[in-house]
């Protein structure tokens, strides 16, 4: 077979496949129209029900579904509807002070009452002889945080902990003069 005959056969095959695809699409459309309730004849189906008159009462529409996984809206009848309580629990013997920025909120254990949905609280807990603890408390719900404080000896077992080295400044570093 010559090359021109092969090209001619390939063109005929492509046009035949296009005709086959368009024929399939047309047949699918006709079947869909014949099966719909608006087009075609009713094959043994019950005749459509007549519309009720305006004088006859009709049933109320079904209520919208209620989803249990959605958070309920805050109700205004509760006295604490707009606030959250965050409880910080720590060993009272440690005398751990809770700081929010520079503000000392008190000694743990304590409760913090904030407006619901306000910004999260970045807290620092400091106790004598313990490493400082940094935590974040969110204000979207009531919460209790248990604080575990570690001393210098216990901190060696924590992953990523490296003890600070107090190096004396060398003479090679410049000292800044105070005026």
What's the short version?
With 179 residues, this protein is an alpha+beta fold. The chain has two helices and seven strands, in the order αβββββββα. The protein is elongated and about 95 Å long.
What does this structure look like?
The chain has 179 residues and is of the alpha+beta class. The chain has a domain at 83-155: Immunoglobulin-like, CATH 2.60.40. Helix content is 21%, strand content 21%. Strand 2 (97-100) and strand 3 form a beta hairpin. The N and C termini lie far apart (102 Å). The model has no long low-confidence stretch (mean pLDDT 73).
Could you name the key traits of this structure?
Immunoglobulin-like, 179 residues, 7 strands, single chain, alpha+beta, three-stranded mixed β-sheet
- Oligomer designation: single chain
Count the strands? 7
Report the CATH architecture of the domain at 83-155.
Sandwich
Helix segment tally: 2
The proportion of residues in beta strands is 15-25%
**CATH topology group of the domain at 83-155:** Immunoglobulin-like
User: Mean pLDDT score, rounded?
Assistant: 73
How is the biggest beta sheet arranged? 4 strands, antiparallel
Distance between the termini: 102 Å
Shape: elongated
SSE order in H/E notation? HEEEEEEEH
Indicate the low-confidence ranges by residue numbers. Answer: none
Helix content: 10-25%
Q: What strand order characterises the main sheet? A: 3-2-5-6
In CATH's first tier, which class of the domain at 83-155 applies?
A: Mainly Beta
Structural Rg: 39 Å
Instruction: Find the structural class using helix and strand composition.
Output: alpha+beta
């Amino acid at each position: 077979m010559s090359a021109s005959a092969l090209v001619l056969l390939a063109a005929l095959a492509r046009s035949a496949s296009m005709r086959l695809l368009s024929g399939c699409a047309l047949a699918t459309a006709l079947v869909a129209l014949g099966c719909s309730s608006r087009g075609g004849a009713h094959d043994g189906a019950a005749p459509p029900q007549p519309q009720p008159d305006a004088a006859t009462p009709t049933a109320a529409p079904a209520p919208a579904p209620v989803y249990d996984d959605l958070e309920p809206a805050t109700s205004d009848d509760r006295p604490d509807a707009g606030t959250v309580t965050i409880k910080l629990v720590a060993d009272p013997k440690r005398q751990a002070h809770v700081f929010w920025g520079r503000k000392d909120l008190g000694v743990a254990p304590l409760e913090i009452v904030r407006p619901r949905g306000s910004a999260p609280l970045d807290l620092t807990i400091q106790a004598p002889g313990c490493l400082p603890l940094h935590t974040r408390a969110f204000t979207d719900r009531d919460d209790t945080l248990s604080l575990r404080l570690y001393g210098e000896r216990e901190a060696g077992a924590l992953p990523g902990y490296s003890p600070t080295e107090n190096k004396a400044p060398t003479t090679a570093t410049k000292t800044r003069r105070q005026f």
